Amino acid sequence: MDEFINILNFVGYLSTFIVIIAFIIGIILWFKGILPVLFRLGKGLAKRKIAIFAKSDNLTSLKSLLLDSKLFSEKNIVKITSNDDFGKAEESTLFLIFWHDWEKKDIDEILNKKTDKTALVIYAPQDKGIIPKDSFKKINLKRNVSVTNLRGRLLSDVIMSLITTSYENK
How many CB atoms lie within 10 A of CB 17? Predict the structure, then answer.
């Protein structure tokens, strides 16, 4: 009987040791994997500027989409409604473009202003027409670009772009 109790004690200690090791490994993996992503997302949502390139109702719609999510602050949204406003987007780390509000030369100018560190999300709903193939080829040459045609996907792409692009403290 004593041997049986000793075996049960040994198994109990061994299983407790395994659970403690698994817990410690889980904590380490969480700090190495999840915590940095949450930290980058928090910084992205709190401090990074989003330039919305859109006109009239489309600007209002995109801005309200971002603000209604309660993830973004209005002070971090820069409104670009004309070619003359493109300079206001220089400090923004994410460009959000409503494709159909701009002419080809305007899109080319926006693409030239975009740096590798700047994320670009293009919203082009298909009911207004598709992006021409030659423009799509130009877009594809840029880094950190996402094209979407669904409003629900748009918010997801904005958040993912904020996570995956770098942020520099000023």
Answer: 10
pLDDT of amino acid 57: 94
**Residues in the chain, pLDDT under 70:** 44, 166-170
Per residue in 3-19, pLDDT (tens digit) is 888 888 999 999 999 99
pLDDT of residue 156: 92
| Residue 165 in tokens | 């692009």
Using alpha carbons, select from 48, 136, 130 the residue that is nearest to residue 96.
48
H or E stretch at 63: helix 56-68
Strand-strand pairing, 94-98 and 50-53: parallel
**Residue 164: left (phi > 0), alpha (psi -120 to 50), or beta?**
alpha
Pairing of the two strands 77-80 and 94-98 = unpaired
**Distance between CA 123 and CA 154 in Å, rounded?**
7
Buried-state track 100-129, b at ≥16 Cβ within 10 A, e below 16: ebbeeeebeebbebbeeebbbbbbbbeeee
Contact in structure between 119 and 95 (CB atoms under 8 Å):
yes
Torsion (CA) 130, 115, 165, 104 in degrees, nearest 10: -10
In the structure encoding, which two tokens stand for residue 19, read together? 């659970």
Cβ proximity of 114 and 165 under 8 Å: no
Q: Which residues pair with 148 in a beta bridge?
A: 123
